[in-house]
Amino acid sequence: MTPTGTVSTIQLSAASYTVAEGDKHVDITIARSGNTSTASVSFATIDAADKQNCDVMNGVASSRCDYEGRFATVKFAPGETAKTIPIFIIDDSYAEGQESFTVKLTNAVGSTIGAPAEATVTIIDNDLGNGPNPINDPAFFVRMQYLDFLNREPDAAGLEFWTNQILACGSDQRCLEQRRVSVSSAFFLSIEFQQIGYFVERAYTVLGSSSHYFQTPSGEVGVSTPVERMNEFLVDLNQVGAGVVVGQEGWETVLENNKRAYMLDFVQRPRFSSLYPTTMTPQEFEKWLFVYALPYIVPSTIGGDAVMAEFGG
Q1: Tens digit of each residue's pLDDT (9 = 90 or more) over 279-297
Q2: Four-way CATH pick for 9-130: 1.10.357.10, 3.30.420.40, 3.30.230.70, 2.60.40.2030
């Protein structure tokens, strides 16, 4: 049974985690106790290294060089007591010793945050001396495309296919340069990225453009500012892309369900509801949808009848 009369508490399972640099990822467990009805909490990595170069050796891990920053809204369904968040580790070629970064829980909804709410993650170096830039290694390069574009580890078949595209060039430097560009472009144009990352990007267009001047419903002239910030994008990317691997059986259904859940959440966010209050008429909604979304959505290319139909009239 799900206890309903007790307080819900969400916390990290440990105050510290250790991962070997070559292990590719570290799993962070978020535990919940007490009332186990619906709840959520924000999870984030904290990058104290900021913009320091990758060859700086001061014990501080960088999300630019040592691990992939992770931002997520972790949602607990009724009865769930634990969630696991993987953080991808980058196996670089610098002999830098142990390096650490922090993960943190904030913004609990339907629960309180217990201790520990923060944890230190320590990466154990596996290099005895500085080596060549690993980005020149085809397999390393391809893995980074998966992490950066698709936010997941590569599947074995995909890693082999794209790595072989580069290896086919042999030692031809011009071919290698062109092929790396082509492989990276393929990830950008892939169904998986276009249907997840670019889908999220397009959702934010209805919140306005930073270079667009407009007149607000109250008559004041304002400047629309988008915008989607990187941390927001990464949170939403996790939500839409959860469990999606294009080519695996049932991926279309998983993606469609994720999109529907995401958009239902998106239109209930304060940034959306402040622009499109429920007091708007269908005609007002259509007008301001196009005003805020310009130049991304042009009224002449999208029928107003379709917008009206969404309101049932």
Answers
A1: 988 888 888 877 777 655 5
A2: 2.60.40.2030
